[in-house]
Amino acid sequence: MALNARVRVAALLPLVLIVASGCDGWSGPPTTVGTATATLSAQTRCLAETTTNPCTYWFQYWPDGATTVTSTPHHEANVDTGGFVTVTEAITGLTPGTLYHSQFCGYGDSNVQAPGLCVGQQGGAVSSPGTQPDTGDHNSTQRFRTATTGTAATIDLGRPLSAADTSDRPISRDAGFSAAYSSTNSLWIFGDTVHRNGSPPWLLGTTAAAGPYARGQVPVTLQELPTPPAAPSPGRTGVALFLPTPTGLLLPGNPTPSNPNPGPVACTPDVSSSYPASWTSGMARIPGTERLLIAYHQICVATTRDSWPVERVTLTDYNPATNRFLSTVTPFTASPLQNGVPVTQQLGSPVFGGDGFLYFYAHDFSSARVIVARVAADASSWGNAANYRWWNGTTWTTSQSTAASVITAPEIWSAHVADFTGVGSHRYAMIIQSSFGTGGYRIYESASPAGPWTAGPAGQVPDSCPGGGFGCYAFTAHAELSTPDRFWLSWYSPGDRNGFAHIRLAAVPW
Q: Which of 473, 445, 293, 320 lies closest to 381, judged by CA?
C-alpha cells in the first residue's frame, strides 16, 4: 500500500497476515499513546505493478461502543517498497482513559480495488472501510487504552499461541504463566483449556506449551507439551493435561435445616458441581540450571460455591528438556483438608533472591495484603513447612499471624511477582489486580525480593471485560518478554474469540 516521506523501515518483521497478493499488511501496536493522542502504526508493502490503481492507505479508529468510525487522510504513492515497511499516523482529540480500536486500511496494485480492505492484528478478520469487524475477535482490531492523569496507557499486543492453535481448531486458554529456562526458550503453563474441534475437547487443570521467545515480541510458535513424563514431541496438534490432577480433596458438606453440621464430601471430577485441579501459582528458573521450580495449588474448584479451598501447596522441580518432574514436595497441607490452608500458606511467585533464600508471595484480598515468606534456597529445605519464615515488617518470624503486607493498596484481588534482573535497570516487579472484573492493575518494583516496594504505573487493560462472571482476571508479569521501557503483562480476556476467551498480552511504559 502507499508510502510517503514519513515511512520508516521496520527493524524486525513478525509473521505476515496476507490481505491479498500484491497489496497486504496488518496493524501494529501504536508507537505512542497519551491522554488524547496516539501514533498508529502498521506494516505494509506495495508492488507498484499498475498505475491505474495506485497503492493507497489510511487508518480508521473509534472508541469502544461507538457506531461510527473516524478515518485519517488517505496517502498515495505508487512505489515498489521492496518488502514490508512501517507506516505511521498521528491522531488527536482522543478521550482520556478510553478503550480504542483501530485498523489499517488500503487498496492498490492489480487485485485490491477501491474501496479496499481494513485489517487489525495478524490473524484477525478483514473488514471493509468504514465498517467495524466482528467485536468477538479481538485480533480483528488493534486495541489500546489512553492514559489519564493517574494511569498509564496500555496497548494490546495479541494472543500467545501454539502451532496447534489454528483457525479451524482454536484453543481457548485460562490463566497463563511463563518463565524462561534458557536464553532462547520459555515454558508457558495455562489454566483450564478448551480445544474446539480437537481431542480432548476440554481439560480441567493445566496445559503447557514451550518454545522460543524474544523480548518485545508475542510468542506465536509455541509447541504443545504432552503429559509428563512423555518426551516433548514437536508438531503436536492437540493439548494435554500438564500438572497432575490432585486426589483425595474434600469439600465442606452442604448444611441443611435437618443436618446443620454435615461431614465433608469428596471433590469429584464433575464440572457441574466441583472438580479437583492443580493451578499454577508461579515458576522460576532454578539458578545455574535449565530447570524450573513450579509452584501450584491443589484446589477443589467448587463451581456452585463461593469458596474454593486451597488444600495443598506443592513445589516441583521440572526439566523442560525431558518434560519430567524430577522431584515434588508439598510443604503445606490443610488440616482438615476441606478447610483449606490459611492465606499465609497460599504461597506462589517463587523468586530466587541470590542471597541464599527462595522467596514466595501470597495475597489476601479480604485484608488487602501481599505477604512474603522465605526459605533456604535448596531442595532439602523448601519441602518442609518448619523451615519457612514470614516477614512481619521488622524481622523474619515463624509467627504467620503477624505477617505484614509489603505494599499498601485499597484492593488486591491477585498478586504476581517475577525476577526482572537483566531487563534494563529493573530487578523485581509485582503486578496486582486492583479492581474486580474491570481490568485495573498496578505495578510495583523493588531492588530486593523482600522489599521495600515502590508503587509504579497503574492502568486498565485495553479490554471491555464482558461477561464470564469474573470479568478480566489472571494478571501475570512476563519478565522474559519485557523490555527496559515496557512492562509486559497478560490477563484473561473473557470476550475474546466470541466468548470462548483467551489469554492476551499487553505492554505499559515503566
A: 293
Identify the CA nearest to 145 among candidates 489, 380, 502. 489
Total length of the chain: 510
**How high is the pLDDT of residue 270?**
66
Contacts of 325 by beta carbon, 8 Å cutoff, 6+ apart = 228, 229, 316, 317, 318, 319
Q: Are the C-beta atoms of 134 and 498 separated by less than 8 Å?
A: yes
Residue whose grid cell is 479437583 = 276
Radius of gyration of the chain measured on its C-alpha atoms: 24
d(CA 451, CA 437): 28
- Using the Cα atoms of residue 119, residue 120, residue 123 and residue 124 in order, give the sign of their dihedral: negative
Q: Whole-angstrom Cα distance, residue 418 to residue 261?
A: 43
Tell me the sheet residues that pair with 266: 250
What nine digits make up the cell of 420?
526482572
Phi, psi of 300 (to 5 degrees): -90, 105
For each of the domains in the chain, give its residue range(s) and CATH number, in order of start.
23-149 (2.60.40.10), 158-254+263-509 (2.115.10)
Whether the model clears a pTM of 0.85, i.e. scores above it, the answer is yes
Residue 54 predicted with pLDDT over 90? yes
All cell numbers assigned to 134: 466482528
Cis peptide before 336 (omega within 30 of 0): yes
Cell 488486591: give the residue: 412
Q: Which three cell numbers stand for residue 509?
A: 511504559
